[in-house]
Each structure stands twice: as structure tokens, then as C-alpha cells.
Amino acid sequence: MLLSGANGVAQGLGWPAVTKMIRAWYPPTQFGFWFAILTSAANGMSAVGPSIAAILSVHHGWQTAMHLPALLAIATSPFIIFCTWDKPSDVGYEDQLTLGGAEHGHWSDMVGSDFLMLLVSSFGFLFVVKTSCSEWGQVYLVEEQGVPYYTAYGCFTSIEVGGVVGSVTLGGLTDFMIRRGYYFGSGRSPRMIVVQLCAAGSCLFLNTFIFGSDPETSKTFISVVAFCMGFCLYGGIALIGTIAIEVAPIHMTGAAHAIIGLAANISSVIAGSPIQYMSQVWDWFTAFMLINITCLAAFLILIVGKNVPATYLEEPTDGPPRLREYFNNEQLAKFYTSVALNHKQYLENVAYTLG
């Protein structure tokens, strides 16, 4: 138990640090895509990791299943130490511009922010839905609807695949919206409209999953619904994490991600034993109806808070009122030139370090 707790502490310390580095290296026009790549990589390995560990434990023993990921982590740590830098200025280049994060601010500004409360609450509810569908979706199909086990397992795989595709696609799409200056409303993040659509889509496909599945339903239909549900859930969750980081004060991006991560951990606990207990007291259909209500609550929170200013500070010191004024051609050229130079210098530093 102590070793497991220490492992959790190590992972908890790593996530805010790596998100802070990505935030520092990539401009707002690319941050959503690369943050989605980061979260998709973690989600993808979380999905296939248990299967790999089970296979290794059967054929080579549980010690091998535990030692292999530890050895891989140790092997990659020198690369992380010697070939990565906190920010562009550490290697002589200008740091990236920001979308809405101020250069200064206090933690009390962030903790007391209405916008952060909006993000944390909607993120927490969506994460409960996402975790519940991933962990209990197969059980619901098999025990409540009588769907064959192999069809139910295909549903789980489709949710994870849809999540990876949704996170990367929507991250790139919202970057494109920022790059082209597409903007909706006053004082909001341009990514928020996509999050609202994801929450609406999650409600739609979750209801289809609950009421449209039975033993005679085709495997293809269930897989498509599960894929779309994963696309909306994972995509919306990844975008909320992106927004929480990019509008935070520059020196507090790690803290912003840590707060969002805390909501995710609490939601994972809620989606575990409490949901199973509800299924034992009532049945799986009732448990998933409660999950459905949770998804609807997330959507309503996003709609009610749609005009909350996308900032953690009462009076933003940086960041323009309109993206169209901010991302003019001259500054876009500066963005792309900076990214190209930073990438070239990064490759040169890696080659020098390894050589």
C-alpha cells in the first residue's frame, strides 16, 4: 500500500510539471493539439496497459508485469532530464505569447474564480460519466440488457478509440478556430462553445446507449454509439483541461492543472464503488439513469455559465477582448517563426547532448 501510494505521489507530481512545460513551449494556436496528444497518450496506455499486464502475468509471472513498466520508466528518465527544457528562454529563445493568462496573479485569484469553479464542476461531472461508462458500460450491457460479452467488450474498445480520436481532433479544431480568429461571445474562451457541444453530444449518445441497446441490437450500432460517446466525453474533458491551463497566470499553470486533476480523482472514486453500490441496491439501469442525470447536469452548468469571463482575475491585465484583434498577420508570423526556430534549436540541442 505504501509503494502504491508513493507511485501515485510520483505521478501526481509529474502531471502538473509536464503540462506547464507544454504550456510554455507551444503558442495558443497549437497548445490544444499538443495537450490532446499528451492526454491521449496517457488514456491510450491506461486502456491497453491492463491487458498487456494480464498477458505478461499469465506467461511470465506477475513480477515481470510489474518490473517491465518500472524499467521502461527508468530507461526514459535520462532522456527527459537531459533533452527537455522548462521554457524556450532556457535555451536562448523568446517565450511564447499567451491567450489570456496574466503575467502575475495570486493563488487566491484562481481559487476564488467563478470561471475555475465552472470548469471544475463541469469537468468533475463529465469525468464521472466517462469513468462510469468505461468501467461499468460492459457490465450494464451484459447483465441488464443481455448483450453478448464479446459485443460488450467491443463497446469498451470503441469508447477508448473514440476518446483518442475526439481529443486530438477537437484539440486541433479549436486551435484552428483561434488561428483564424473565430470567436463566440464576449469574454469567453473560443474553446468553450466546442465543450458545450461535446456535453450535448454526450447526453445524446449516452441516452442512445442506455435505451437503444438490447440482445438484438447489432454490434456495429453499439460500437458506433460507444465511439461517438467516447469522442464527445474525452474530447470535452481534454478541452476543459486545456482551457484551465491556458487562461491561468503564467506562473500558476501547474496549480491550475492540479486543481482540475483533483476533480478528476474525486470523480474516479465516485464512479467506482458508489456506482456499484447503487446497482446492488437498485439495478444497473437505475445506476446509469443517475449517470445520465450527471451528464445532463454538466451540460446545464456549461449553458448557465456560458457568459462567465474566461479569466481567473477580476480585471485581466493581459489578453485582448477579441481574438481577431490579437491574432493579426504580424503576430501570427511571429508565432510561426518562433515555433520553427525553437524546434530547430531543440533538435540541435538534442543532437549535441546525445553526441
Task: Please characterize this protein's 3D structure.
The structure is a single chain. This protein is mainly alpha-helical. It contains 13 helices and no strands. The protein has 2 domains: 46-93 and 326-355, no CATH class; 99-309, MFS general substrate transporter like domains (Growth Hormone, Chain: A, Up-down Bundle), CATH 1.20.1250.
Q: Count the strands?
A: 0
Overall pLDDT level: 76
Question: Structurally, how many domains make up the residues?
Answer: 2
How many helices does DSSP assign?
13
Uncertain stretches = 315-333
CATH architecture label name of the largest domain: Up-down Bundle
CATH topology of the largest domain: Growth Hormone, Chain: A
The succession of helices and strands, N to C, reads HHHHHHHHHHHHH
| Residues in β-strands, percent | under 5%
The CATH fourth-level homologous superfamily of the largest domain: MFS general substrate transporter like domains
Helix content: over 70%
The major β-sheet equals: none
Radius of gyration: 21 Å
What best-fitting shape do the alpha-carbon axes yield? globular
Write the layout of secondary structure elements.
Elements: H1 2-25, H2 28-60, H3 62-83, H4 107-111, H5 114-144, H6 149-180, H7 192-211, H8 219-246, H9 253-270, H10 273-281, H11 284-304, H12 323-326, H13 329-354
